[in-house]
Amino acid sequence: MKVRLLIACVLVAAAYMALTTETRLSTPIKPDGIPQASETPPSRIYKDASGREVHIATPLLDKFSYAGDADLCIELREMTKSNAEAAEELLDACDDISTGSAVEISQKRIWLATMLGDGDEEYTYSLSDNEIDRNKRVVLAISMLRAALDAAAPDAAKEAFSALDSLWIANDASGAFAGYNPPFLFRSAMKAEAGEALLALCPIAGRSDCDSFVPSGMPKALEELGRWKSDEALLLRSAELLEREYRAIKDPSKSKELNFAQDFSATLGYANELNPGNGSAHARRGVKPLEEWLGKYENSTDERALRYIYSTVGAAYGRIASDSQQRADAEKAVKFNSLTFEIARKLDKDGPSWENMANLGDDTLLLAELNREEAGFQKALKLHRDAYAITEKLNSQDATAYMNMKLALTLQHYAKAELPSVTKNERIAMLEEAVNLAEGVKPLFEQTGTALYLRMTNGVLGEANAQLISLRQSN
Predict the structure, then answer these.
(1) Model pTM?
(2) 3-state class of 16 per DSSP?
């Protein structure tokens, strides 16, 4: 199975590569400087006036403990001592946080947490914005929200909803946040956990839009977690929420139709990589809205916009073709990714992106295998070498690792084709390079737990080494 890369969805936004192969949210490590949270029940129970109960689980949030309002204010004064005058309003709010009723105190904690955790807020300009201090602020803010949630009575679903809805402040954590492993996925993990809790609470929290309500950013968070966890269920949940979100839009514009179609195709495309059964049903379902969009708007859309759409459709059919092994699917993938390549070559001074080269190389390789055409193998190898070179210039660890794996796979498949024009020594050289590339990237995939990529890398190593043994023993 070949992994596809979508232009619309960046492979990852940080230098860390992946996470554990478990199918649930990873257990985070304890944030530095934060006391160990006390034992809490596995779920929280809320109910409305009619007696209807809702159970929510917040295992990630529960790892953050709150030392109390007094300790918070001491910590905040220490953090702002170099600019105390500018922080006066923030400090006054902290001093006042313990006054009032229980509901008022909870509301004050939520307000102060959002002020403290949001790096764009006017109140936080007095605070240091280096990575360590910013993450420390995020830890304090999330701990306050955990305390606000703890304080919400079973019949106070609205207050609980408000605390959970404020956990968007996790967005301000850096990619090196020490409260989760791997760090770069913390933001998505918190957003997904809080989102599921918000969806569960919605019917008893006084909202009238629960049939269409989707917590902001939740589909994207689930998609990112699903990709790196190799979890089909998370990806399908993301697609479900994308559809719910889109259905709630009355008379969607051309751009909104496109945004939905691209996100939907990308998410189901990743799910298809994990489970291509039933004739690549996920990918075929995912690409349908994009093809419908092209049918309506292709002639009225300029090339700059079309190339990204072509790329997404090409990536989808590349996934389908790699599973179906059908020439018609492969030709469709090559067609759309070639359109993207040519437009980029014409419009961009730097030429096509490494992502486009990676996808077009995959499609060209598959078509070459189906047609047993050496020119196709040569073109696929050149595309992947060029893409690999671009990622090295970009100094992107995750992109280079991905292309390292892709290049190794292409070399191994080229040698395996046993084309009459390729000599034995040339095949041995290809396989030796493939083994070196795969062995070079394998430790990273083992360390980060990227199950799909590790499986592909091990497959390359197994087949390439077997081919080498056979070739070296032959006359």
Answers:
(1) 0.73
(2) coil
